[in-house]
Amino acid sequence: MAPAPSQPPWPHCGHGTTAGDPVGCTGREVEPYTACLAHLSENLRSGYLATLAPGSDVDHRGTEFDAPLLGRLLGALHDPATGAPRLGIADFESAAFTGGLALFEEATFGGQARFEAAEFSGDAFFGSATFGGRASFRAARFDGSARFDSAEFAGEVRFDLAEFRREAWFEEAVFARDARFDSTGFRGEVRFDSATFNGDALLDLAGFARDARFGSAVFNGAALFEAATFTREAWFESATFTGEAGFGSATFSDTAWFDSATFTGEARFEATAFMGEARFEAAAFLGQARFEAAEFAGEARFDSAVFERAASVGPLVCAGRAVFSGATFGGPVTLAIAARSLVCRRTRWSSTASLQLRYATVDFGHAVFEYPLSITAEADPFALPDGRVVDELPLAGGAGPGVRIGTLRGVDAAHLVLADVDLSRCLLTGTVHLDQLRLEGTCSFAEVPPHRRWRPVRFTARRTLAEEQHWRARHRSSVRGWDVSVLGAQDVRPASLAPVYRQLRKSFEDSKNEPGAADFYYGEMEMRRHDPQTPRAERGLLNVYWALSGYGLRALRAVSWLALATVTTLVVMMLWGLPEDDPKPVSKGTVAGSEVSLTTDTPKPVNPDSGYLERLSSDRFEKSLRVVVNSVIFRSSGQNLTTTGTYTEMLSRLTEPVLLGLAVLAVRGRVKR
Q1: pTM here?
Q2: How confident is the model at residue 42 (pLDDT cuts 50, 70, 90)?
Q3: Is the distance from CB of 265 to CB of 243 less than 8 angstroms?
């Protein structure tokens, strides 16, 4: 049983009073009578309506209108000049419009129009109506369609706490002053396309159960949607926000469309929840763009957006991709983003910029900037100005918080700084001025895999480019472990990779990091060795250089060859290089008169003919060792040698110092600062 109505504050009709309903009809008495318009006798009603003229004031608070009664009232106010009703001050507070259409199309309200707490059980048409004064539909209920398209509101408008149970259309409506829709419930589709708000548009806590369309709407004052709820799609395409645009703590459960929207003033999306896709493609942020603690459950698309004066964007969290491809940043900016993927292809940065990231894989291909720009992996979660930590729960369960660079192709790296990022899958071919790239903190590259062929040989650990990983995986099929899955790597040839390694080497050398530069020198030489366009003689020399010392960078390899050469020389000397016995000088002379002539000769060393085991004696070892050690430092041992030993010593004096020098060079390359 419905509760009895409360006593209204105006003189009311009281028709139908009962013991259970002592108030009865709440309709405003039609003066000088004691009944409302609905309960006047026909003669009295006709007499009252005859007193009305276009522009008359009407007060029918609490009155129940069916379609015929409303038609007669508006007919009495019909203006022949315009062909539509014209009302002065109109008060329909708590009125009930039942039984069909509430037709106020093209009506003119010269003064205040009050429909507070009015109930429209059928469709309510106010299309093209003109409200010359304040219009209030506060707490009104529209059970049918509500049409206010092309309506003009010259004064303040209030729809706060109103309830629209079906579609509400305000297309091309004009609000000259403030329009209040805060806490309004929209259960059906809402259309404000091409509406103009010259005052503030207040829609805080409004609830939109179906599609909400504000396409091409113009907000010349503040547009506040704080804590509003959009259950279905929200369309703000090509909307213009001249003043403040506040969407703080709003919830978009489906796609939010802000494509081509223009935000001249501050755009506030703090703590806004985008549960579907958020689209800001080609949007223009001419003032501050605030997305602190905003959460994007799907993609956040800012393709071709313009950030004219955005000093800071974020920190925000995006569980999907954050796409800024083609975006333009006109002033100094800091982007603080935690996202699965950050796409910044062809972005333009007209001033200094800092990208502070977590979790993201970054595509920075063909970005353009002429001022210092840094990409930094933040070790700790982002903190808000009030000290609260940004919730990163949507990113839990995937890759760690580290930042991975996917590509820098087409970028001029002269002003680029990378700090603590993962470059293991980064595409660097086509990057300009790579030699001026600055790497700070711990920046990791891809490592070579173990050599898994049947031979017990392993690759020496070094940092490599992703493109080399891809190339080796495709062209060195007998070696497993190289990464062929690098997206976009294509089939880059060694001739293209050698200059990339060379520029990275120079970058490390310029930053006084000689050990770090060594890996890239090794990679450069590897690409030259494998390049089929390298002359054959040069490739042969490079192969020898690689085999002997790893291009002067592998001390163990050079020392191993030196040890092998030394041992070989030592064994050859013991077996064939030392004579059987040291030859003793022999003097021969002639006596002629009083003169004696003597000639001293040293016999040629005699090759040993004893058994091999007998030659491997300690005495012969000591002599052979002296010969070998002296040969390493370009000195002659003075030991008598056989012909084989002489040539062996000559060869060792040429090769072993070179191997020693390569070993020293490799050690120096790893410890030099």
Answers
A1: 0.82
A2: very high
A3: yes
